[in-house]
């Protein structure tokens, strides 16, 4: 063995068997875990220290049922195993993580992997479930028959990881290989033919296992890596498969049949006991309700309703607390800085006004994430996808699109990455393009602000929750037709999409995991508020504060003294502030651009809020916060942003004196934000995953869509009112 | 008495069935085969989505959902 | 006092700009992520 390089150990296995849980336990990292297939879509690396002090690279891979590698995430796993990943040598050892409940199916993958010649250790994970269900597996016997170490583990509680570490340490020395099937004559001949044509004659570097992939898989990723060109290799591959056919084996079915024929006797008496438990599992009984034709849908809708409703009802008290704290802090800092008025404005109006307005929404975001975590950890996600599949299929998508789209409700970026599990490239492309329409959590503060200011006070929490739900739904509503249009206009892709999805057993979520996720989500929200949002806020404050010629104040005071001498000092100050704001850099810009948004009912202050939030949506909150703080509303001080907004009046123009924010305007703003692609990071990810042309297209397309929808909302609203 | 083969998309819920024939040319079925759905495998139809598509089948202790059009390529016989 | 005021504000502003500049340059390189949720592959700044 070469010792100058750190050894690497890869975790492979079927989806949802606990690879990432094990990875987290062994490396101390915290990668995403969830109870559905396809949580991990990328290769992740960490360092694992073995009992003898040696440090190895541990690689977590996406789950895969076989090495045929149809979808992108499966391909990652296969490439790493075969050593074709760009940045990694083939692993020195693989740990096959096996779900004890599905031993046979899981070992199929192990058997395929063994053909690539990598040493192997098998982790029998979810051992606790087996114990609870009375499943007895003789791991020692299995070990003898398979020829590689077999270690029972419970990745959730760290049980068995010590034994696993020891087994791996030993296996790195002894390099055990799983027993391999003896292939029948026909297979051997076809393989021999391939070896002769490709390796001997054309000098390809291929392992035995890769030859098998070329022979057995109709469309193999291995083929694309060959030096031999497609026109040259296709006849060879076809010829090899014909040989197999003539030998009496259907090429597409041969591998499954033969490999299971080989595996079955190995598992014989172990599987017998499993077959004895035929009665319905708990999961299945729960599903009788949750997947019911009528009740299932009702539960789904009800669940969504509860989620959105509780975002309002649960978070209220905490929000008040934060709001009060921010107000106090503003007063305190303001008093402290009276000697330096400019800095006072920066700190009080800018940082505290802007970032504070944003921070208030932390509790509501935590509530939403609590529910998302709960759905992911219990295993309901795959059920929801099952229920929704038909809704997707007419627009060319499938249930596999559901999980990426649902995680786009947290953030479009992980959602877009999760589309790697979709094997049909066209469906994947469509899913990526509509993912930004799912209402991500960055939009939440905007809705919360508008709903909190204009809907909740008048119509109550129930309608507020419903509006919030509607805002999350509007994107979905438009995504359907959009997907259908794309489906019709994009050229069809040749292979059909194999839509097979596992419905995992329900699991009781671990409170510690959910707690950890909330902690992480909360701390990142706060960090974001303290860094990006804060920095942007300061810049925006400056653009709204400068220039500040002293003549302006004098001029305003002079005209005020002439026209309306009865003004109180406070009112006078307000006028001066408003005049300054209006002629600030941002103010001038906003007033120039405002006509574009006039049909949607926006004044120049909203306009600059919208424009400032193109890099990141949340900026509108802090921008509005600063604008109104600088504009100096008369009874400022105690008011939070929501109250201030509801008091704002048009200063000039045909509607001077009327409230800026009426219900149609508030709705129009929400609709605009619901649909607009105001997220630089998402555009970048689309460009990376598809093509920059798609990224630009979706940016302009969605922005135009948002504008049209916002104008329609406002105009229809005003017409109704 | 010979048992009549049925297509999986036509069967009723909750009975126990045995696979008799599979169309391995269908990518979806090829996938199920690598998961162990082979001739002679026993299976049950456990769930149907609201509009009857997709369906969920259980075999070997795992539940898989597949679409009706793919299920039509699997032939089964009732065994109880 | 007014001098001090100006100097402080300018320092804070330049600091913010420098921070943003560095952030967006770094983000371009890593192809970064934009949300700060746990699912995010790259940590949000
Ligand atoms: N009861 C029990 N549950 C486990 C065990 N290991 C993992 N789980 C749960 O199984 C689910 C899947 O775990 P993951 O670690 O995300 O599985 P994965 O193999 O990485 O899944 P993919 O990335 O989708 O391929 C989670 O809900 C875990 O909490 C275990 O030993 N016992
Ligand atoms: Mg994983």
Would you kindly provide a written description of the structure presented here, covering whatever features stand out?
The complex is a heterotrimer of chains A (721), B (80) and C (45). Chain A has four domains: 8-174, P-loop containing nucleotide triphosphate hydrolases (Rossmann fold, 3-Layer(aba) Sandwich), CATH 3.40.50.300; 185-253; 295-489, no CATH class; 534-720, no CATH class. Chain A is built from 33 helices and seven strands. Chain A has helices spanning 19-27, 72-82, 103-114, 127-132, 139-146, 161-174, 185-201, 208-216, 221-225, 230-246, 251-266, 268-276, 282-290, 295-313, 316-336, 341-359, 362-378, 380-393, 402-407, 412-418, 425-434, 444-454, 456-489, 511-545, 550-563, 569-582, 585-597, 604-612, 619-631, 641-647, 663-675, 680-689, 692-720, and strands at residues 8-13, 44-49, 55-60, 93-99, 120-125, 150-152, 500-503. In chain A, strand 2 (44-49) and strand 3 (55-60) form a beta hairpin. Chain A is elongated, with a radius of gyration of 31 Å. Chain B is α+β, with helices and mostly antiparallel strands and 80 residues long. Chain B has a single domain, classed as Ferrous iron transport protein A (FeoA) (SH3 type barrels). Chain B has two helices and six strands. Chain B has helices spanning 27-34, 68-71, and strands spanning 6-7, 16-22, 42-48, 55-59, 62-66, 74-78. The relative contact order of chain B is 0.33. The mean pLDDT of chain B is 84. By secondary structure, chain C is an all-alpha fold. Chain C has one domain. In chain C, 64% of the residues lie in helices and 0% in strands. Chain C starts with a helix and ends in a 15-residue tail after the last helix. Mean pLDDT of chain C is 65; it is low at 28-45. Classes of the chains: A mainly alpha (721), B alpha+beta (80), C mainly alpha (45). Chains in contact: A-B, A-C. The interface between A and B is large, with 42 and 32 residues. Magnesium ion is lined by residues 19-20, 39-40 of chain A. Residues 19-20, 39-40 of chain A line the site of magnesium ion.
